[in-house]
Design brief:
284 residues; Helicase, Ruva Protein, domain 3; Rossmann fold; two-stranded antiparallel ribbon; 11 helices
């Protein structure tokens, strides 16, 4: 059996669970062969051994049972880099790349920026991407999950940034005296009720998805922690759902009424990245 026949035979099995079954099969084959997807497309007449067919069929079965492709591969791309992923962390998504881009925009305008906190780091994809883009940065990456931090540590060593990215297990903000220049916070923001009807809730870690009754419970606690500190960072970036903008505005108005807020569209045209420039003035 050659590559083209395998794809044609197994593609129908994935049609009910995948928007692009041929793409997933091509990526899976490339992974097993140690080749690129473009190589697979250029060698569709390449024969497969019986052992390879059996191994591929086992992974196709995992796909049909709902295991996400990145977890099968054990890696996924984010911001042009490969990252290890496991079921203990969220799969990096293109929408989140916008947060990295907006952080880099800020750093370009404020080249004196040195310290970033990546709160809720998960796989570490944001922290590592920023470290790779800006050699002058030092980044503290926090997460409440020790399992997630183990994945982040692998990615930090994979990309050789261990001297500039530091992991801390804690609930949101680390107990460090001096505030950073920037905080990136891609925290859980799906409401508990919405999660009940989302397929993702059965596949990716709930601790990284469940944002409480209105989806803003974790962000509310983050801002409460910030407000309790003597000084605030200069810039905060969050990832949210568009319908949460008003609610987050209200929380900012309570704790940081003089802050400047902006919302940026993601690649699909949805309001996704919420940014805050802080003033030291706040309500008492």
């Amino acid at each position: 059996m050659d590559l083209k026949t395998f794809i044609n035979n197994y593609s129908p099995d994935l049609e009910s669970i995948s928007e692009n079954p041929n793409f997933e099969l091509q990526v899976l084959i490339a992974h097993h062969l140690g080749k690129s997807r473009s190589w697979v497309l250029a060698h569709l007449d390449e024969p497969l051994s019986d052992e390879m067919i059996n191994n591929l069929a086992l992974d196709v079965d995992r796909l049909t049972r709902g295991v996400p492709l990145p977890y099968i591969l054990g890696k996924w791309e984010f911001f042009g880099h490969q990252f290890f992923v496991t079921p203990q962390v969220l799969i990096p998504r293109p929408e989140t790349e916008q947060m990295v881009e907006k952080a880099l925009d800020w750093i370009t305008i404020h080249p004196e920026t040195r310290w970033v906190w990546d709160v809720g780091t998960g796989s570490g994809c944001i922290a590592v991407s920023l470290a790779l883009a800006c050699p002058q940065l030092k980044i503290v990456a926090t997460d409440i999950s020790i399992s997630a931090l183990r994945v982040a540590q692998k990615n930090i060593y994979l990309h050789h940034v261990a001297e500039r990215v530091f992991l801390i297990q804690t609930d949101l903000l680390p107990a460090l005296a001096n505030p950073p220049d920037i905080i990136c916070a891609n925290l859980p923001y799906v409401s508990s009720e919405d999660l009940k009807s989302l397929e993702i809730a059965e596949k990716e870690p709930l601790i990284a998805l469940d944002g409480g009754e209105d989806g803003l419970a974790i962000y509310r606690r983050l801002l409460e922690q910030l407000a309790s500190r003597a000084t605030a960072p200069h810039f905060l970036l969050c990832e949210i759902d568009p319908y949460q903008i008003y609610g987050l505005d209200k929380v900012l108005e309570r704790y940081f009424p003089f802050s400047r807020r902006q919302v940026f569209l993601d690649l699909s045209g949805f309001e996704r990245v919420y940014t805050v420039e802080f003033s030291e003035m706040r309500k008492q």
